[in-house]
């Protein structure tokens, strides 16, 4: 079993047990997807926030639903598929209510392979620089899945959504979020322009299985390329509107602040919404703190690109002086999926710092130093992933 030391690098976590699952996880009666894995690393039980052990993450190019990280903000709603209706309104010609079978029968099915990644993935690395608010995720708040559903664009067009730049598509969900003294339905929005791209899905299945309750049964949004927060689970309604969703999740959370911002100054400081995720890469094997036998060692991990894809991945074992090009072991024919890379190195005896960096298709790369991208909320930790190991 993975331990805190080898997997989370300083993040506090618990191992989830089957008892935890039976009390916390609501399972949908009509869906029969696989049970959640018992070895997710739990940062918080309520809301349930749990990440995939990274060695396991690297073992399957498509992350099984049961092993997929879970990021909740409230409790998991139990939704009956038969009575389920999705409401669509706002700046549309015809407000509509659609059942799941309406969605499945009226619109062409679409499959998209895409990464889901929390904006807080790898946040734990920022703790070395200064205080960060939020769960201390390691590099396992990410997964790659094949999503099945319909294009949101088709559904919006059928409802006669107004077109126009500057409009937003807001999504509201069935879970209630409790933040400080505030209670509200989970809600976020994306620009209409993004919403009208064909790969943004209203999805009911993940890797060919109905969504598990934890991952949004019966219907969730999947916005490839964007931070996970913009892909609501347990979708209740969609509104086309002039403004971003007026919820604390959209207006206060998941925004990037300047490095000078503190918890106290956050309310008045400028910030930008986090939508597109930057290039990133992580070393999954060996684990941080591992002691390896002298000789050749295989280093393995994942990398994600921007809309320009991943062109190259490099690994260093001297903290970033000399770089060795990794082999791309697996990739899909879409820029939304991750890639798996590996490199075989002959490591001398001693203490080493492994580092990985990726380049996108236009030469862009990751920053070397986490201090350069520190922000008080610990979002977008995309600097070189560094892992200390020992040989001999
Ligand atoms: N309704 C709802 N949707 C949600 C959330 C949530 O708490 N409630 N969390 C978001 C966040 S921050 C992330 S990272 C992803 C995680 O999706 P997963 O739990 O299926 O991995 O869901 C997003 N959608
Ligand atoms: Mo997230």
UniProtKB/TrEMBL annotation:
Name the cofactor(s) required for activity, per the record. Answer: Mo-molybdopterin
Domain Moybdenum cofactor oxidoreductase dimerisation, by residue range, is 273-391
TM ranges: none
Q: Where is the Oxidoreductase molybdopterin-binding domain?
A: 73-247
Give the InterPro entries listed for this entry.
Answer: Ig_E-set, MoCF_OxRdtse_dimer, Mopterin_OxRdtase_euk, OxRdtase_Mopterin-bd_dom, OxRdtase_Mopterin-bd_sf, OxRdtase_Mopterin_BS, TAT_signal
On the tree of life, the source organism's domain of life is Bacteria
GO terms, biological process: sulfur compound metabolic process
Kindly list the GO molecular function terms attached to this UniProt entry.
heme binding; molybdenum ion binding; molybdopterin cofactor binding; sulfite oxidase activity
Record's Gene3D superfamilies? 2.60.40.650, Oxidoreductase, molybdopterin-binding domain
Name of the protein described by the UniProt record: Sulfite oxidase
Q: Which organism is it from?
A: Aureimonas jatrophae
């Amino acid at each position: 079993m993975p331990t805190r030391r080898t997997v989370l690098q300083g993040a506090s976590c618990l191992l989830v047990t089957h008892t935890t699952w039976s009390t916390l996880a609501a399972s949908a009666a009509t869906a029969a997807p696989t049970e959640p894995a018992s070895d997710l690393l739990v940062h918080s039980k309520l809301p349930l926030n749990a990440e995939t052990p990274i060695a396991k993450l690297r073992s399957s190019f498509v992350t099984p639903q049961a092993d997929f990280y879970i990021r909740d903000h409230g409790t998991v709603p139990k939704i009956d598929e038969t009575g389920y209706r999705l409401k669509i309104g706002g700046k549309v010609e015809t407000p509509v209510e659609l059942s799941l079978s309406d969605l499945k029968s009226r619109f062409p099915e679409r499959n998209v392979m895409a990464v889901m990644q929390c904006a807080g993935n790898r946040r734990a690395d920022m703790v070395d620089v200064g205080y960060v608010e939020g769960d201390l995720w390691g590099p396992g708040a990410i997964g790659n899945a094949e999503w099945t559903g319909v294009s949101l664009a088709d559904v919006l067009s059928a409802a006669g959504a107004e077109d126009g730049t500057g409009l937003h598509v807001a999504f509201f969900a069935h879970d209630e979020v409790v933040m400080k003294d505030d209670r509200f339905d989970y809600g976020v929005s994306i620009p209409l322009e993004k919403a009208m791209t064909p790969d943004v899905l209203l999805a009911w299945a993940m890797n060919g299985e109905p969504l598990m309750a934890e991952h949004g049964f019966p219907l969730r949004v999947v916005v490839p390329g964007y931070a996970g927060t913009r892909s609501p689970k347990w979708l209740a309604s969609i509104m086309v509107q002039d403004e971003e969703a007026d919820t604390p999740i959209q207006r206060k959370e998941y925004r990037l602040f300047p490095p000078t911002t503190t918890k106290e100054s956050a309310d008045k400081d400028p910030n930008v919404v986090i939508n597109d995720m930057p290039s990133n890469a992580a070393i999954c094997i060996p684990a941080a703190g591992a002691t390896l036998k002298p000789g050749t060692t295989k280093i393995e991990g994942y990398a994600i690109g921007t809309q320009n894809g991943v062109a190259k991945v490099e690994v260093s074992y001297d903290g970033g002086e000399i770089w060795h090009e990794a082999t791309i072991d697996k990739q899909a024919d879409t820029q939304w999926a991750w890639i798996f890379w590996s490199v075989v190195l002959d490591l001398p005896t001693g203490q080493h710092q492994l580092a990985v960096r990726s380049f996108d298709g236009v030469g862009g790369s990751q920053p070397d130093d986490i201090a350069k991208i520190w922000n008080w909320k610990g979002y977008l930790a995309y600097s070189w992933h560094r892992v200390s190991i020992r040989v001999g």
